Amino acid sequence: MDFKVGDSVIFLDEKGGGVITEIKNKNTVVVSDDSGFPISYPVNKLVKINSSAVTESESSINVVDGNNAISLFYVPTEEGIEFSANLQLILVNNTRHDFYFELFYKQGGRALKFNQGQIDKHNKKLVITFSSSEIEKYSQLYFQCLFSSSREFTPVHPLFKVVQFKASKLFKESSFIFSPEIQKIAFSVCLLEKAEYEKLLNPTPHLFHNEIMKEEVSEAIKISKPHHINRVEKVVDLHIHELIDDLSNVSESQMLNIQLNAFDKEMNQAIINHYASITFIHGVGTGVLKHAILERLKSYEGIKHMPASFNKYGHGAIKIEF
Asked: Which of 3, 69, 274, 288 has CB 3.0 to 4.6 Å from 197, enough for a Cys bridge?
Protein backbone atom coordinates (compact mmCIF):
# COMPACT_ATOMS: atom_id res chain seq x y z
CA MET A 1 0.00 0.00 0.00
CA ASP A 2 1.27 3.51 -0.86
CA PHE A 3 1.54 5.89 2.06
CA LYS A 4 2.08 9.65 2.15
CA VAL A 5 2.60 12.30 4.81
CA GLY A 6 -0.70 13.12 6.48
CA ASP A 7 -2.26 9.65 6.17
CA SER A 8 -4.01 8.35 9.28
CA VAL A 9 -2.96 4.77 10.13
CA ILE A 10 -3.41 2.04 12.75
CA PHE A 11 -0.82 -0.52 13.89
CA LEU A 12 -1.32 -4.16 12.94
CA ASP A 13 0.66 -5.74 15.79
CA GLU A 14 -0.40 -3.51 18.66
CA LYS A 15 -3.15 -1.21 19.83
CA GLY A 16 -3.08 2.36 18.61
CA GLY A 17 -2.19 4.42 15.58
CA GLY A 18 -1.45 7.94 14.47
CA VAL A 19 -0.55 10.12 11.50
CA ILE A 20 2.39 9.72 9.12
CA THR A 21 4.70 12.75 9.44
CA GLU A 22 7.74 11.54 7.44
CA ILE A 23 8.56 8.99 4.71
CA LYS A 24 12.01 7.58 5.51
CA ASN A 25 12.18 5.11 2.61
CA LYS A 26 9.92 2.69 0.77
CA ASN A 27 9.86 0.34 3.78
CA THR A 28 9.77 2.72 6.76
CA VAL A 29 7.75 5.78 7.77
CA VAL A 30 7.52 7.97 10.89
CA VAL A 31 4.16 7.93 12.68
CA SER A 32 3.18 10.52 15.31
CA ASP A 33 0.81 8.92 17.83
CA ASP A 34 -2.04 10.68 19.65
CA SER A 35 0.41 12.26 22.10
CA GLY A 36 2.53 13.62 19.23
CA PHE A 37 5.44 11.24 19.88
CA PRO A 38 7.19 10.17 16.60
CA ILE A 39 7.74 6.43 16.00
CA SER A 40 9.60 4.78 13.09
CA TYR A 41 7.40 1.96 11.79
CA PRO A 42 7.59 -0.58 8.93
CA VAL A 43 4.94 0.05 6.28
CA ASN A 44 3.92 -3.62 6.18
CA LYS A 45 2.74 -3.27 9.79
CA LEU A 46 0.40 -0.33 9.08
CA VAL A 47 -3.11 0.03 7.73
CA LYS A 48 -4.36 3.32 6.29
CA ILE A 49 -7.75 4.27 7.70
CA ASN A 50 -8.53 7.44 5.73
CA SER A 51 -7.12 9.86 3.16
CA SER A 52 -5.57 13.17 4.20
CA ALA A 53 -6.97 15.11 1.27
CA VAL A 54 -8.97 18.16 2.37
CA THR A 55 -12.25 18.88 0.64
CA GLU A 56 -15.17 21.19 1.28
CA SER A 57 -17.07 18.27 2.81
CA GLU A 58 -14.58 18.12 5.67
CA SER A 59 -16.41 20.99 7.34
CA SER A 60 -18.56 18.25 8.89
CA ILE A 61 -15.62 16.31 10.37
CA ASN A 62 -14.68 16.90 14.01
CA VAL A 63 -11.20 18.25 14.68
CA VAL A 64 -8.74 17.26 17.37
CA ASP A 65 -8.85 19.44 20.47
CA GLY A 66 -5.94 21.91 20.33
CA ASN A 67 -4.51 24.83 22.28
CA ASN A 68 -6.46 27.52 20.42
CA ALA A 69 -10.19 28.18 20.11
CA ILE A 70 -10.05 29.44 16.50
CA SER A 71 -7.07 29.05 14.15
CA LEU A 72 -6.04 29.49 10.52
CA PHE A 73 -3.73 26.91 8.94
CA TYR A 74 -1.63 27.44 5.80
CA VAL A 75 -1.17 23.94 4.36
CA PRO A 76 1.08 23.06 1.37
CA THR A 77 -0.82 20.93 -1.15
CA GLU A 78 2.29 18.80 -1.72
CA GLU A 79 4.40 17.70 1.22
CA GLY A 80 8.09 18.58 1.20
CA ILE A 81 7.96 21.40 -1.36
CA GLU A 82 6.67 24.30 0.73
CA PHE A 83 8.57 26.84 -1.37
CA SER A 84 6.78 26.17 -4.66
CA ALA A 85 3.49 24.39 -3.89
CA ASN A 86 0.01 25.85 -3.78
CA LEU A 87 -1.33 26.36 -0.27
CA GLN A 88 -4.68 25.65 1.30
CA LEU A 89 -6.11 28.04 3.89
CA ILE A 90 -8.05 26.04 6.49
CA LEU A 91 -10.17 27.62 9.24
CA VAL A 92 -10.66 25.58 12.43
CA ASN A 93 -13.47 26.18 14.94
CA ASN A 94 -12.47 24.53 18.21
CA THR A 95 -15.11 26.33 20.32
CA ARG A 96 -18.40 25.17 21.80
CA HIS A 97 -20.34 27.43 19.43
CA ASP A 98 -21.16 27.50 15.74
CA PHE A 99 -20.19 30.76 14.07
CA TYR A 100 -20.70 32.76 10.89
CA PHE A 101 -17.43 34.20 9.56
CA GLU A 102 -16.11 36.62 6.96
CA LEU A 103 -12.52 36.89 5.67
CA PHE A 104 -11.01 39.87 3.86
CA TYR A 105 -7.68 40.73 2.27
CA LYS A 106 -6.36 44.22 1.62
CA GLN A 107 -6.03 45.73 -1.82
CA GLY A 108 -5.31 49.35 -2.60
CA GLY A 109 -6.20 50.52 0.88
CA ARG A 110 -9.53 48.63 0.88
CA ALA A 111 -10.69 45.42 2.56
CA LEU A 112 -12.10 42.95 0.01
CA LYS A 113 -14.13 39.94 1.14
CA PHE A 114 -12.95 36.65 -0.39
CA ASN A 115 -14.83 34.08 1.70
CA GLN A 116 -17.71 33.77 4.13
CA GLY A 117 -19.75 30.98 5.63
CA GLN A 118 -20.79 28.96 8.65
CA ILE A 119 -18.68 26.50 10.66
CA ASP A 120 -20.19 24.22 13.27
CA LYS A 121 -18.48 23.79 16.64
CA HIS A 122 -15.37 21.56 16.66
CA ASN A 123 -15.12 21.54 12.88
CA LYS A 124 -12.94 22.88 10.08
CA LYS A 125 -13.41 24.36 6.62
CA LEU A 126 -11.25 24.74 3.55
CA VAL A 127 -11.44 28.48 2.86
CA ILE A 128 -9.37 28.81 -0.33
CA THR A 129 -6.48 27.29 -2.26
CA PHE A 130 -3.97 29.84 -3.56
CA SER A 131 -0.64 29.82 -5.38
CA SER A 132 2.73 30.72 -3.87
CA SER A 133 2.71 33.91 -5.95
CA GLU A 134 -0.27 35.14 -3.85
CA ILE A 135 1.37 34.67 -0.46
CA GLU A 136 1.69 38.43 0.08
CA LYS A 137 -2.08 38.84 -0.31
CA TYR A 138 -2.99 36.12 2.19
CA SER A 139 -0.43 37.08 4.85
CA GLN A 140 -2.42 40.23 5.71
CA LEU A 141 -6.07 39.38 6.45
CA TYR A 142 -9.07 40.55 8.44
CA PHE A 143 -11.29 37.99 10.19
CA GLN A 144 -14.61 38.53 11.91
CA CYS A 145 -17.23 36.14 13.23
CA LEU A 146 -20.57 36.05 15.02
CA PHE A 147 -21.21 33.14 17.37
CA SER A 148 -24.49 31.20 17.49
CA SER A 149 -25.97 28.07 19.04
CA SER A 150 -28.84 25.71 18.24
CA ARG A 151 -29.57 25.39 21.98
CA GLU A 152 -30.54 28.06 24.50
CA PHE A 153 -28.18 30.90 23.69
CA THR A 154 -26.28 33.25 25.98
CA PRO A 155 -25.01 36.33 24.10
CA VAL A 156 -21.34 36.14 23.11
CA HIS A 157 -19.36 39.15 21.94
CA PRO A 158 -18.53 39.11 18.19
CA LEU A 159 -14.87 38.70 17.25
CA PHE A 160 -12.66 40.78 14.96
CA LYS A 161 -8.98 39.94 14.35
CA VAL A 162 -6.21 41.23 12.11
CA VAL A 163 -3.92 38.53 10.68
CA GLN A 164 -0.47 39.86 9.90
CA PHE A 165 2.88 38.14 9.57
CA LYS A 166 5.94 38.39 7.35
CA ALA A 167 5.13 36.66 4.06
CA SER A 168 8.70 35.33 4.00
CA LYS A 169 7.68 32.86 6.74
CA LEU A 170 5.77 30.83 4.15
CA PHE A 171 8.99 30.40 2.16
CA LYS A 172 10.81 28.83 5.13
CA GLU A 173 10.56 25.09 5.71
CA SER A 174 11.11 25.63 9.45
CA SER A 175 7.78 27.52 9.65
CA PHE A 176 5.81 24.34 8.89
CA ILE A 177 5.20 21.82 11.65
CA PHE A 178 2.80 18.96 12.19
CA SER A 179 -0.53 20.26 13.57
CA PRO A 180 -2.68 17.72 15.47
CA GLU A 181 -5.82 19.85 14.97
CA ILE A 182 -5.86 19.12 11.23
CA GLN A 183 -3.35 16.24 11.20
CA LYS A 184 -1.18 17.94 8.58
CA ILE A 185 2.10 19.79 8.17
CA ALA A 186 1.11 23.46 8.33
CA PHE A 187 1.92 27.03 9.36
CA SER A 188 -0.65 28.06 11.98
CA VAL A 189 -2.05 31.44 13.06
CA CYS A 190 -4.07 31.79 16.27
CA LEU A 191 -7.22 33.90 15.87
CA LEU A 192 -8.63 33.28 19.34
CA GLU A 193 -6.96 31.71 22.37
CA LYS A 194 -9.04 29.49 24.65
CA ALA A 195 -8.65 31.88 27.59
CA GLU A 196 -9.82 34.77 25.42
CA TYR A 197 -12.78 32.68 24.22
CA GLU A 198 -13.86 32.03 27.82
CA LYS A 199 -13.86 35.79 28.44
CA LEU A 200 -16.17 36.29 25.47
CA LEU A 201 -18.61 33.86 27.11
CA ASN A 202 -18.95 36.19 30.10
CA PRO A 203 -20.14 39.56 28.80
CA THR A 204 -20.73 42.40 31.25
CA PRO A 205 -23.99 41.58 33.10
CA HIS A 206 -25.61 44.91 32.25
CA LEU A 207 -24.57 44.79 28.59
CA PHE A 208 -28.13 44.60 27.35
CA HIS A 209 -29.74 46.81 30.00
CA ASN A 210 -31.12 49.81 28.10
CA GLU A 211 -30.95 52.39 30.87
CA ILE A 212 -27.37 51.64 31.86
CA MET A 213 -26.40 51.46 28.19
CA LYS A 214 -27.73 55.01 27.75
CA GLU A 215 -25.57 56.20 30.64
CA GLU A 216 -22.49 54.46 29.22
CA VAL A 217 -23.05 55.93 25.76
CA SER A 218 -23.46 59.41 27.22
CA GLU A 219 -20.25 59.03 29.21
CA ALA A 220 -18.43 57.74 26.15
CA ILE A 221 -19.51 60.82 24.21
CA LYS A 222 -18.16 63.06 26.96
CA ILE A 223 -14.72 61.47 27.07
CA SER A 224 -14.48 61.27 23.28
CA LYS A 225 -13.89 64.99 22.99
CA PRO A 226 -10.42 65.69 21.51
CA HIS A 227 -9.02 67.35 24.65
CA HIS A 228 -9.66 64.15 26.65
CA ILE A 229 -7.79 61.85 24.26
CA ASN A 230 -4.04 61.35 24.07
CA ARG A 231 -3.95 60.64 20.32
CA VAL A 232 -1.03 58.68 18.92
CA GLU A 233 1.55 60.07 16.50
CA LYS A 234 3.35 57.03 15.09
CA VAL A 235 6.50 56.66 12.98
CA VAL A 236 6.96 53.61 10.71
CA ASP A 237 10.23 52.76 8.94
CA LEU A 238 9.51 51.10 5.57
CA HIS A 239 13.13 50.30 4.73
CA ILE A 240 13.05 46.67 3.60
CA HIS A 241 15.63 45.50 6.15
CA GLU A 242 13.24 46.64 8.90
CA LEU A 243 10.46 44.41 7.53
CA ILE A 244 12.12 41.09 6.65
CA ASP A 245 15.21 39.30 7.89
CA ASP A 246 16.51 37.53 4.77
CA LEU A 247 16.79 39.45 1.48
CA SER A 248 18.77 36.83 -0.43
CA ASN A 249 15.83 35.33 -2.37
CA VAL A 250 13.56 38.38 -2.58
CA SER A 251 13.19 40.25 -5.88
CA GLU A 252 12.78 44.03 -6.13
CA SER A 253 9.09 43.67 -7.00
CA GLN A 254 8.55 41.42 -3.97
CA MET A 255 10.34 43.95 -1.78
CA LEU A 256 8.01 46.70 -2.99
CA ASN A 257 4.95 44.51 -2.33
CA ILE A 258 6.17 43.78 1.20
CA GLN A 259 6.72 47.50 1.85
CA LEU A 260 3.27 48.42 0.50
CA ASN A 261 1.60 45.67 2.53
CA ALA A 262 3.27 47.11 5.63
CA PHE A 263 2.02 50.57 4.62
CA ASP A 264 -1.56 49.30 4.18
CA LYS A 265 -1.46 47.49 7.54
CA GLU A 266 -0.21 50.55 9.43
CA MET A 267 -2.70 52.86 7.72
CA ASN A 268 -5.55 50.57 8.66
CA GLN A 269 -4.39 50.44 12.29
CA ALA A 270 -4.03 54.22 12.34
CA ILE A 271 -7.62 54.68 11.13
CA ILE A 272 -9.08 52.03 13.45
CA ASN A 273 -7.25 53.41 16.50
CA HIS A 274 -7.87 57.09 15.63
CA TYR A 275 -4.23 58.15 15.42
CA ALA A 276 -3.53 61.85 15.15
CA SER A 277 -0.86 61.20 12.51
CA ILE A 278 1.48 58.60 11.11
CA THR A 279 4.87 59.22 9.48
CA PHE A 280 6.29 56.74 6.95
CA ILE A 281 10.05 56.70 6.37
CA HIS A 282 10.43 55.64 2.73
CA GLY A 283 14.00 56.78 2.09
CA VAL A 284 15.19 58.59 -1.02
CA GLY A 285 16.57 55.97 -3.43
CA THR A 286 14.80 55.85 -6.81
CA GLY A 287 11.53 57.28 -5.50
CA VAL A 288 9.50 54.22 -6.52
CA LEU A 289 8.19 53.53 -3.01
CA LYS A 290 7.31 57.18 -2.40
CA HIS A 291 5.39 57.35 -5.69
CA ALA A 292 3.52 54.12 -4.87
CA ILE A 293 2.55 55.48 -1.44
CA LEU A 294 1.23 58.71 -2.96
CA GLU A 295 -0.87 56.66 -5.40
CA ARG A 296 -2.22 54.59 -2.50
CA LEU A 297 -3.18 57.73 -0.57
CA LYS A 298 -5.55 58.79 -3.37
CA SER A 299 -7.98 56.09 -2.22
CA TYR A 300 -8.20 57.48 1.34
CA GLU A 301 -10.67 60.20 2.33
CA GLY A 302 -10.43 62.70 5.15
CA ILE A 303 -6.63 62.76 5.39
CA LYS A 304 -3.86 65.28 4.73
CA HIS A 305 -0.34 64.36 3.70
CA MET A 306 2.83 66.40 3.52
CA PRO A 307 6.63 65.98 3.65
CA ALA A 308 7.70 65.06 7.17
CA SER A 309 10.14 67.16 9.20
CA PHE A 310 13.25 67.80 7.08
CA ASN A 311 15.39 68.19 10.22
CA LYS A 312 14.47 64.65 11.33
CA TYR A 313 14.12 62.74 8.05
CA GLY A 314 15.52 64.88 5.23
CA HIS A 315 13.58 64.18 2.02
CA GLY A 316 12.93 60.56 3.00
CA ALA A 317 9.58 60.60 4.83
CA ILE A 318 5.93 61.56 4.45
CA LYS A 319 3.53 62.55 7.24
CA ILE A 320 -0.20 61.74 7.14
CA GLU A 321 -2.72 63.49 9.41
CA PHE A 322 -6.21 62.20 10.16
From this structure: 69
